[in-house]
Every structure is written in structure tokens, then in C-alpha cells.
Amino acid sequence: xxxxxxxxxxxxxxxxxxxxxxxxxxxxxxxxxxxxxxxxxxxxxxxxxxxxxxxxxxxxxxxxxxxxxxxxxxxxxxxxxxxxxxxxxxxxxxxxxxxxxxxxxxxxxxx
Length: 111
Hints:
By secondary structure, the protein is an alpha+beta fold.
């Protein structure tokens, strides 16, 4: 498994399409012994190695179809866009109120 595939799995887990179960320290040691002996890892155990070290994990897939995943992602995007829109409106109103307050304060000082 390369870095891109691991990143994609991470995003799929973040969006709730699957669950990644990281192996415990003891399980990792057992997997290391299996690899050193030249045997294959048990079914469902995945080995990932990068510059930070070696990681063993299994994946629990929740069984979403590709169409369901697309719908869920579209829903998540719509929700995020709505949140961003609300924050833009909030800061726009806050900026307008501050600008009006500044103008009023400047007028009062001139009088």
C-alpha cells in the first residue's frame, strides 16, 4: 500500500464509509514476527510502511455503494458550503456594523 492509497483510506474513514482498526502494540509485534518468518499476514490485516515506521491495521467496510458514497459526499459538501455562507454573512454584518460605528464616531469627534 502506498501513501496515496493510505490517504484515501483515511478520508474514507473520516467521512464514515469505513472504519480503520489500528493493531495494538502486541498485535504489531506478532505481525512483525510473521513477516520475518516469511509468511503472509492473516486475512484482512494490512501492512503500511512509511518514513514514520510500520503500521498494521484492518478495515471494516460499512458496505456503501459508490452511488451512496457520492450522495453522502454531496450532502457533506452542501452542508459545508452552507456553513461557509453563514460565516461570510456573519462577518459581513460584523464588518458593516464596525464601519457604521467608525463613521458615527468620526462624525461625533468632528462636532
